[in-house]
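pasting for ref
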Amino acid sequence: MTEKPRPPLEESPEVADAIQDDVAVDAFITGGGTDQDTPEFLPPGPEPQWRTGADQPWDPADLAVAEGRDPTPENVERARRELAEDGPAAIERTVP
């Protein structure tokens, strides 16, 4: 048993009736709920807890690797000096 092909939607009697009718279609009425023109506003809540890269302890070798350098003694020493001089700002520049 083969099923008879359906005509394209734009050729259906329902679409023709909807085009000729100026009355709102019930399926498209939102009833005043939230949509693009009437968004839902949430009450203020607690402040979010943001973490940054400097919120955790960093070893000089970790900073050297995070900056894309090999952890050679020279790069680790440079990162150690950078951490000593700039503190968390040294990390924030690399890992925000």
